[in-house]
């Protein structure tokens, strides 16, 4: 019977975590009646499309609510079901609360690779929080956190303290000033931000290697922006660590070229330019100054055969032509 009530408490705790996020999300909706919501809900799909994001704040935003609920659950279990271990039930909360937001989308075909990795990280952090809470199992201080069911009463000071904690959580996890309006469906800002950044870091290298071939240059930037979107810098660091294992061969670097050894971003760009140039020459695609070049879909298909990859590169390709035409030898529209 104790196990039944513990599972029931865990399920209710997971539901409470989901309710917290739904309330925040509802309050961020302009159509919502919850106009007072002081914090904006930011989905993973919106996060990966933003040029500026404080990752520590984002992961704190996704981890703190379930961690607090798991602490409350552990305190209740320690006080009212002391014979039961805590870890199975905190892990159950982590899994159940992650399922609606990260579990399903982790395997969804609609999610791009960058989104899947962030969902995976969110699930790992939630599981890590569950194990961290379980480390305090049978701790006297944890027991003191549990509310006394027989003596619950309104307490002004407790309410004020709780309100201060909520305000601290909201203030410390503000992600951006415009989180509610930043979505992946507004790609132009992201594309231009990363084009300007890549050009400032690797512009000379790319221009020298392209040697006046503007189609090659445009395609390289388009692919780099998409690959950076799919593989953030921190994930590329992880890939460069794993490729050191004997017999490993992975796609590494910002250009995501296949290698059996770690590559810097500059080294991966060199390999990518050679690969794309060879593919363009096979397709007899070449562009100097003049009209807007057509999108070489066969070359992109050869570079990466992933679902939706060609469409993503094409979107960036045409955005760059529209927003930075002179950088690729195309006359600025009058």
Question: Brief description of this entry?
Answer:
This protein has 334 residues and is an all-alpha fold. The chain is 64% helix and 2% strand.
Question: How does this structure look, described?
Answer:
This protein has 334 residues and is mainly alpha-helical. The chain folds into 2 domains: 2-181, no CATH class; 187-328, no CATH class. Helix content is 64%, strand content 2%. The chain is built from 13 helices and 2 strands; from the N terminus they run H-H-H-H-H-H-H-H-H-H-E-E-H-H-H. The protein has helices at 2-28, 44-48, 55-80, 87-106, 113-134, 140-145, 156-172, 187-210, 214-230, 233-242, 265-282, 297-303, 309-323; strands at residues 250-252, 257-259. A two-stranded antiparallel ribbon has the order 1-2. A hairpin with a 4-residue loop joins strand 1 (250-252) and strand 2. Helix 9 (214-230) packs across helix 13 (309-323) and helix 11 (265-282) packs across helix 12. The longest helix has 27 residues, at 2-28. It is elongated and about 75 Å long. Residues 28-41 and 175-186 have low confidence and may be disordered.
């Amino acid at each position: 019977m104790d196990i039944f009530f513990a599972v029931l408490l865990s399920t209710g705790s997971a539901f409470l975590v989901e309710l917290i996020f739904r309330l925040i999300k509802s309050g961020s909706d302009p159509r919502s009646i919850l106009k007072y919501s002081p914090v904006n809900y930011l989905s993973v799909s919106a996060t990966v499309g933003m040029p500026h994001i404080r990752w520590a704040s984002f992961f704190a935003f996704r981890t703190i609510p379930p961690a607090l609920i798991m602490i409350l659950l552990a305190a209740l279990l320690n006080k009212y079901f002391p014979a039961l271990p805590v870890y199975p039930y905190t892990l159950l909360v982590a899994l159940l609360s992650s399922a609606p937001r990260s579990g399903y989308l982790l395997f969804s075909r609609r999610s791009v690779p960058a989104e899947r990795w962030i969902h995976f990280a969110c699930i790992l952090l939630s599981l890590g929080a569950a194990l961290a809470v379980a480390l305090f199992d049978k701790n006297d201080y944890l027991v003191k956190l549990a509310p006394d069911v027989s003596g619950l009463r309104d307490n002004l000071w407790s309410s004020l303290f709780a309100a201060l904690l909520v305000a601290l959580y909201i203030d410390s996890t503000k992600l951006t000033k415009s989180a509610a309006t930043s979505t992946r469906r507004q790609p132009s800002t992201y594309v231009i931000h990363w084009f300007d950044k890549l050009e400032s870091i690797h512009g000379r290298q790319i221009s020298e290697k392209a040697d006046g071939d503007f189609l090659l240059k445009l395609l390289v930037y388009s692919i780099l922006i998409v690959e950076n979107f799919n593989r953030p810098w921190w994930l590329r660091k992880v890939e460069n660590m794993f490729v050191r294992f004997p017999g490993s061969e992975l796609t590494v670097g910002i250009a995501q070229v296949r290698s059996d050894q770690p590559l810097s971003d500059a080294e991966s760009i060199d390999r990518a330019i050679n690969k794309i140039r060879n593919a363009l020459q096979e397709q007899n695609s070449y562009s100097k100054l003049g009209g807007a070049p057509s999108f070489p879909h066969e070359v992109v298909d050869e570079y990466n055969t992933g679902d939706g990859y060609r469409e993503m590169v094409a979107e960036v390709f045409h955005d760059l032509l529209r927003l930075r035409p002179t950088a690729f030898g195309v006359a600025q529209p009058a």
